[in-house]
Amino acid sequence: MKRLMTCGSVTWLLIVNAAAASWAQETKKAFELNSAPGVGQKFLETMAGDWTVTKVIHRGDNPIKTSGECRQYMVQDGRFLQSDFVFGEGAKKSTGTGIIGFEPENGKFTSFWFDSHQTRVSARRSREPFDGTKIVLFSLNLDPDQKETRRTRTESRLEDEGRTLIHRQFILGEPGQERLVMELIMKRKPRGTSN
Q1: Phi and psi at residue 130, in whole multiples of 5°?
Q2: What does the pLDDT read at residue 175?
Q3: To which CATH superfamily is domain 39-188 assigned?
Q4: What angle do CA 86, 89, 93 make, to 5 degrees?
Q5: How many Cβ atoms from other residues are within 10 Å of residue 173's Cβ?
Q6: Pairing of strands 108-115, 49-57
Q7: Is the model's pTM score more than 0.90?
Q8: What is the pLDDT of residues 65-119, one digit of tens each?
Q9: Backbone phi, psi, residue 162, to 5°
Q10: Which of 19, 94, 139, 175 could form a disulfide with 152 if both were Cys (CB 3.0 to 4.6 A apart)?
Q11: How far is the CA of 28 from the CAs of 25, 38, 41, 48, in angstroms?
């Protein structure tokens, strides 16, 4: 009787382990399928390369222009675009890094930005699925206990057959009202030249 109970317990454990292993494989398979690069990553790939940058800050009637450079490249097996910016020189040098990804299952982009001017991270996300021509993102409040202080919308698009990348940031006011506050006008460097 004791032997029969032991055999039954072992059989039950084998069945439970087999079921758990099968469930784990199916879950992993479903997760991996959803995280494969999609149409958004193909669009991001077109932005990879070395760029000269003119940053324009719009304040009043006199925009402030700063020159810089940017290197953009795909990371994590082509799943994300990383952008490394450098503006100015010497004591006035500033740097910034952006990471943007695309979720094929919902058609939306999410980006993160950090730079040498501040200690906080900026996050943005699409509200609508990707239209195939431009990336439109809205600011995210990462602190649920803090009131959102500045709502923004950014729009990035390639022009001039992929030789120019225009990135604009707008502050959102009342519904339907927005004001351009910053733009990056990026010109692709010829192949073989680098930062």
Answers
A1: -55, 130
A2: 73
A3: Calycin beta-barrel core domain (2.40.128.20)
A4: 55
A5: 10
A6: unpaired
A7: no
A8: 999 999 999 999 999 999 999 998 888 899 999 999 999 999 999 999 999 988 8
A9: 85, 5
A10: 139
A11: 5, 19, 22, 30
- Give the CA distances from residue 136 to residues 1, 89, 139, 181, in Å, rounded to whole numbers and listed in that order: 70, 31, 10, 16
- Asked if residues 170 and 181 have their Cβ atoms less than 8 Å apart, the reply is yes
CA distance 23 to 32: 14
Residue in the block written with tokens 């009787």: 1
**What's the distance, Cα to Cα, between the start and end of the chain in Å?**
78
Domain boundaries, the chain: 1-34, 39-188
> Which CA distances in Å does 17 have to 14, 29, 30, 50, 102?
5, 18, 20, 52, 36
Give me the amino acid identity at 78. Answer: G
The helix/strand/coil state of 8 is helix
β-sheet bridge partners, residue 98: 83, 113
Looking at residue 160, its pLDDT comes to 95
- Regions in the chain scoring below 50 on pLDDT: 16
Locus of tokens 């009202």: 177
94/68 Cα distance (integer angstroms): 9
Whether residue 79 contacts residue 37, with contact meaning beta carbons closer than 8 Å, is answered with: yes
